[in-house]
Design goal:
- The chain is mainly beta and about 450 residues long.
- It has 5 helices and 34 strands.
- The strands form 9 sheets. Strands 1-29-28-27-26 form a 5-stranded antiparallel beta sheet, with no helix packed on it.
- A hairpin with a 6-residue loop joins strand 19 and strand 20.
Length: about 450
């Protein structure tokens, strides 16, 4: 009888895994690394001396590092992806102790010293968060042996999705200073010489600064800069509610008065796009100078500038308003206007009942020539990654997708049932993604399934 019971349990386990095999359209799996079964947030891919290295930030937790034989707090993974079909795990840098959002080292950025104005041309530098406490710089010239250089700032109450301009060294750090009224605002540092970080200024929305009163505006999620050439920084505020995209004049931001008065905080602002009370702005990706044949003969019709504003789903099994992608026309920066949305239908995939989160989270930020102004990729949690044709931004169209298979390492996601009990399911949670200059797509999983390296196989006209 015991054998029958054990066989039944094994059958049920196999059936649970079989319910979530991989599925794809116009995207193919090239390689996979389980990332030591660590919950993953942000991947960044950087080439140096012919080697392509993926740097992955992790949520809090703890797992065995087979390279050291020790259990280590989740931090930063370094993986050689020079051959995307044979990724090779190189090193793990432990992060802050704690679980989920309370530990780890979620965000990572990388610059070569030869690109930084005052960097050592022989070195490669890694900028990362240390949980919610600090921002650090590491020397990853030898990715197998990362070495910490310095702590840029510590004793924070929050961090998140930073941005680093490699050509200037200017870094926009998502921080939580103890005297600010919000968990996440912006600290701008000059890291052109990584050995000597210099604070430029602190920045946020009026009402977030020390000494302010009244309602506190939605906290920062992350910025994206176009550098000196584009002279704009796009800040995304909010997660799944009360979202805003703030368009800022970069030169005024860096050279304007730094005292955080309401007037000084508004001085560099060019435009503001406000979402509804039920949508946020996790990622605000500018797609500028798009030539639109439909409007080529119209006065002022083309080229036009757009931003892809991506919300983040937070709650399992659709127990919140749907989060999606908003296409915003920012040609008139002072008056941004939403012109389209992109959404993944719940049916026929049955994503609301599949388990875990269903909805958008983030887009790629790197835009290499084969994809620029043509294709964008969006992480959609249990619906995997979605390839979207954006050549007509007024009518974005899905061009492909990939949903990884669950594995024995995929963690469960739970909700409270009506009777108060907990209902748990195992589901893919594609969290963040990036593309490299070769065109490969890298997606990482929040539920411990690792990193999948993909190739778009559809037509790129």
């Amino acid at each position: 009888m015991l054998r029958v019971f054990v066989a039944f349990l094994l059958f049920c386990a196999s059936q649970a895994q079989a319910q979530h095999p991989a599925s794809a359209s116009n995207m193919a799996l090239l390689g996979h690394d389980d990332l030591q079964s660590r919950s993953a947030y942000q991947p960044v891919i950087h080439e140096s001396r012919g080697r392509w290295i993926a740097y992955i930030g992790h949520h809090g937790g703890k797992a065995l590092n087979p390279l050291t034989g020790r259990a280590e707090d989740n931090g930063t993974s370094l993986v050689d992806v020079t051959d995307p079909r044979k990724p090779r795990y190189l090193a793990h840098i432990p992060g802050e102790p704690g679980d989920g959002e309370s530990g780890g080292a979620q965000m990572v950025r990388v610059c070569s010293g030869k690109d930084l104005p005052k960097g050592d041309p022989a070195k490669v530098y890694l900028l990362r968060t240390y949980g919610n406490l600090a921002h650090e710089l590491w020397d990853v010239t030898a990715p197998e042996k990362p070495a910490r250089m310095s702590v840029i700032v510590d004793k924070l109450k929050g961090t998140h999705k930073n941005f680093w301009e490699c050509d200037t060294g200017i870094a926009y750090l998502v921080s939580g200073l103890p005297d600010w009224r919000i968990r996440r605002m912006t600290q701008i540092f000059d890291l052109s010489d990584p050995a000597q970080p210099v604070l430029v200024r602190n920045f946020g929305l009026p009402g977030q600064q020390p000494g302010a009163s009244g309602p506190v505006p939605t906290e920062l999620h992350g910025p994206i800069s176009t550098g000196p050439k584009g002279n704009r920084v796009y800040f995304g505020y909010g997660t799944n509610k009360n979202g805003m995209m703030q368009i800022v004049d970069r030169a005024k931001l860096l050279s304007g008065p730094g005292e955080p008065t309401p007037q000084n905080l508004l001085y560099p602002q060019v435009g503001l796009f406000q979402l509804s009370a039920t949508n946020g702005a996790h990622t605000t990706l500018p797609v500028l100078g798009m030539q639109l044949p439909e409007f080529a003969k119209d006065k002022g019709g083309s080229p036009r500038d757009f931003a892809l504003v991506v919300d983040e789903s937070l709650v399992n099994e659709c127990q919140e308003p749907r989060q999606m992608v908003f296409v915003v026309d920012i040609t008139d920066e002072a008056r941004p206007v939403g012109v389209a949305t992109f959404n993944v239908p719940e049916s026929p995939g049955g994503f609301c009942s599949r388990g875990g989160r269903f909805g958008s989270h983030s887009s790629n930020e790197n835009q290499p020539p084969m994809y620029a102004k043509r294709m964008a990729f969006f992480a959609w949690f249990n619906a995997g990654v979605r390839a979207v044709d954006i050549r007509d931004p007024f009518h974005p169209r899905e061009a492909g997708y990939y949903i990884p298979a669950t594995t024995e390492k995929t963690d469960k996601r739970c909700v409270k049932a009506a009777d108060g009990s907990e209902r748990c399911k195992v589901a893919i949670q594609t969290n963040n993604l990036e593309v490299d200059d070769r065109g490969y797509i890298y997606i990482v999983d929040r539920a411990n399934t690792g990193m999948h390296i993909l190739q778009f196989t559809g037509e790129l006209r």
